[in-house]
Amino acid sequence: MVIEPSGRILGATVEGLDLSRELPADAFAGILAALGQHGVLRFPGQAIDAAALKAFSAHFGGLQTTLSPVNEPGFPEVSILSNIVENGKPIGLSDAGQDWHTDMSYNATVGFVNVLYAIKVPRRDGKALGSTSFANMHAAYDDLPADVRERLRDATVLHDFNKFWENMRSRPGSERPPLTPEQRAKRPPSVHPLFLTHPITGRKVLYCNPGYAIRINELPEAESDAMLAMLTAHQLQEKYQYTHQWTEGDVLMWDHLGTLHTAWPDYLPHEHRLIKRCQVMADRIFDPDFLPPSVRALAGARGESHAGTRA
Asked: What's the CA gap between 161 and 184, in Å, rounded?
């Protein structure tokens, strides 16, 4: 296994692994370490089926499962992201247009990594479309003013799925109805540390995304709104960003704890995109016994509170 950094603030390419085969133990440790260091990992030139995508992803934690009709048949852990319509029905869900966010931060058990496999990539005039951009939350935390870090060192943030839903409803042409009380009850808000200790690096990250964060609990409402606006402007500075341009056969894996992401909807309905995805939950990564010794050594001494990151 060879890891080639992108030379940017995030991103690395991992060569020498065939993800259709069982993952060696030393490769697992190396991937975890690289994920902490680079945030976004590309495994190019892969040819895998849904079973292999599931098996690779399951090394890193429990997989989100749904009974959606746009999942891979027989694999509730493998969802389909696509704009393709067959026989008048979409074969997948769209992941574009959600703006900057971190998956599952509204859950008591948050997302740890996404693993996406590109099968069809839209192109126009030879240029790949539908890129995914990321922002580095290790760097965003490090660059915060010292007085902000000290003042908010023990602060927590309320994350709410309804914020994303209402943002999508407000877009021109949207026909989404409001969430019903029953739907909201199934996805209640959750609370997580504003400054989360990353389980792989042992460093702090700014765990607060504009997609779901609605309140810093320890501040008055008006002050919280102003601070969230400041934090959003800070974390989305171009210097923290990295953009991945997709190629067929890419498996792209990224760390939800240390990054934000957004998918760019710059392709038309006839420019087809097809990606299969597994969502890995942070149900194991905060357990030191889950980490290989070499990765535990990276994080150093623990003892920070991870309250609110797990069910």
From this structure: 8
Euclidean distance between the first and the last CA atom of the chain, given in angstroms as a whole number: 34
Judged by DSSP in three states, 238 sits in: helix
- For residue 96, the model assigns a pLDDT of 67
> What b/e sequence results for 279-310 when a residue is b if at least 16 CB atoms lie within 10 Å of its CB, and e otherwise?
bbbbbbbbeeeebeeebbebbeeeeeebebbb
At residue 248's C-alpha, the angle toward residues 241 and 272, to 5°, is 90
Could you say which architecture CATH assigns to the domain 2-299? Answer: 4-Layer Sandwich (3.60)
Q: What is the mean pLDDT of residues 208-216?
A: 96
- pTM listed for this prediction: 0.93
The region of weakest confidence among 54-58, 92-96, 131-135, 148-152 is 92-96
Residue 244 contacts residue 11 (beta carbons within 8 Å): yes
CA 183 to chain centre: 23
